[in-house]
Amino acid sequence: METNILDIPHVEFIAQLVRHLVSVPPSHFQSPKRGSVALILRLVLPNDDSPFPSIDLTSHAQLKTPASLVQTLSVFLANPLLASAKAQILFIQRARYPGDPWSGHIGFPGGKRDPDDASDQATAERETLEELGVDLTNSSDFMYLGRLDDTRLYSLFNPLQMVASSSVFLQVCKDTPDMAISDEVASAHWVDFDHILQAVAQPTRPFSRTSRTIPVNIASRLFPAYRSTRPMWYRLFERVVGNVYYTVLPLKYTLQNSIVRATDHTASKESWCGTMSFSSDTELYLWGLSLSMLSSLVDLSLPVKPHLVHRAYVSVASPWPQMDPHLWADVNYFMNLAHGILWSPYRRKPWYVKVQQGPQGRTVGNNDDFFRTHFHVLRIAFPLSCLCKVAVLGYLSKLAISGTLKLAKLLSQTL
């Protein structure tokens, strides 16, 4: 019997997230280029006049162990005053700058790691302070819960570009500290966790009426130097290969829970690739790296087994990027079939933790990530599809030539 995920109290999601962040080891990948972001959660009471419980940090301040963290937060979240509280997560829209690949994108506060940063957590805290004016190191306002898996960033069909770490924080006070957003940020939005859970309760099928995607031109990504000149071979490649469509998760927001810096907010809604923008007057459009990070957080938050939620649920970042449905329907079919098997919730954390033995010793928790697994499958599906198409075209050409020769022979005999 399926469980309605929307009926579960939000404190249960937070409690489950804390337990998994402490008990499930996060992946860590070495890279000379590292970045770090902060995923910040808060609990909002239905009535502004309702009292907000205080958290007792005495034990955790003395011990500073994972067990003391779980114990402290378990007592805090079990308070009856929070029974009807709604969880929210903070997203930002980056300001538009010419030449910036992240211009206008929806994501989380954060940035590149500096040599002076002691850790990925320190990077996330420093960047959040610089971008939003929020001090995550203030223990009376925020608690550090733990770290999600590292997310590896790849360009299309190209090697690793950078590794991004995700640090999770929980606001433990009633009123969020005032924000002073910098020029790097266009706006900040607190989004209700219910809007994210909709993707769990009602999974979206590829290219359905409710699905949202961002098309990326494969030719322009592989051969950017020819994007403006567009020689004949480039146009032919573009027509044959088409686009790849990345999944978008729409997130509803309200101005009441937002801070907008841009005087002309429509400027941050400029269309991307001429097809869609990263935000509207009511929604934010999350995709790519940030959506993969959010998916990892949701994975560790679900307080029930995935098969009890929805039989079609795979992840909030699903489906994998799709090829052009008119040109590569066979590739999409194989990819979606493999996606349901290889990226099943039971093959991801917290249900499955990968253990590897390598030159550096035993490594626990370095599971494959969303886009890396997709790329491994695509490397098999795409060449096979091309070979099958060539074989079919060759066979049809052979039949056509054979039929033409027979017809010519028949006509010559008749004459």
UniProtKB/TrEMBL annotation:
It comes from the Eukaryota. It holds the Pfam family NUDIX. Signal peptide: none annotated. GO terms for molecular function: coenzyme A diphosphatase activity. SUPFAM superfamilies: Nudix. InterPro entries: CoAse, NUDIX_hydrolase-like_dom_sf, NUDIX_hydrolase_dom. Residues 68-213 form the Nudix hydrolase domain. PANTHER family: NUDIX HYDROLASE, NUDIX HYDROLASE DOMAIN-CONTAINING PROTEIN. This is Nudix hydrolase domain-containing protein. It comes from Coemansia spiralis.
